[in-house]
Amino acid sequence: MLVNGKAYASGLEGVGEVETSQPLEVQLIRDNRAMGTGPLRVYGQCSHTFGIGNDDIRPAWFLAVYVQGEIKTIDGTCSVPAQSVKLPNASLFEFGGVGSTVGAHSFQIKVNNCPKGYNQIGYTLDPIGGVIAGSPGVLPLAADSTASGVKIRIADDKGVPATFGTSIKVDAYDTATGGSYAIPMQASYIKTDATIEPGTVNGAMTVLLDYQ
């Protein structure tokens, strides 16, 4: 069980006073045995119980959290093919002030061959080189870049800068059928300094998938 994001060990000993400001979370952890389907109940009863109590108050109170549900295995995961997005050449004179963008080019993040049965699939964009504070959607310059004062910005198809490091739900995923999906995006140059030195501008990101 997690309280305020912190895991507490099981056992009869208390853990002291804990004040929670978040929903309590119960996580299932896989051990080294073979995975199999089945209920989380044993002979009609819940097989796992978490207790929260206080015996300093009279009469003592106790809150029990019972774990119920069904475990089912799903064969396979989605795939995201690697791709390169080439932006058109841009002139220094096309840029305005710092933060201006030039050369927007549309592309798609493809999430292919998703099996049916998941409740939800999400994707996370992770820029190679880390997130640049205060610069949403902006990729760090790759080591082989020769330009300066300009970087690449990733945005959705409406031009809203991408959010890095946060799982985003694949809304089109259908748990009954599975399938392949395309997420429309765009990339552009963005001016990051008052002075731009011309050259090549490269950046990269990975797409991480999560399943629920």
TrEMBL record:
Establish whether keyword tRNA processing is in the entry: no
GO BP: cell adhesion involved in single-species biofilm formation
Sorted alphabetically, the keyword list is: Signal
**A Pfam family it matches:** Fimbrial
Which residues does the UniProt record annotate as the domain Fimbrial-type adhesion? 66-212
- State the superkingdom: Bacteria
Annotated GO CC locations: pilus
On whether Signal is a keyword of this UniProt record, the answer is yes
The signal peptide here is: none
Name used for this protein in its record: Fimbrial-type adhesion domain-containing protein
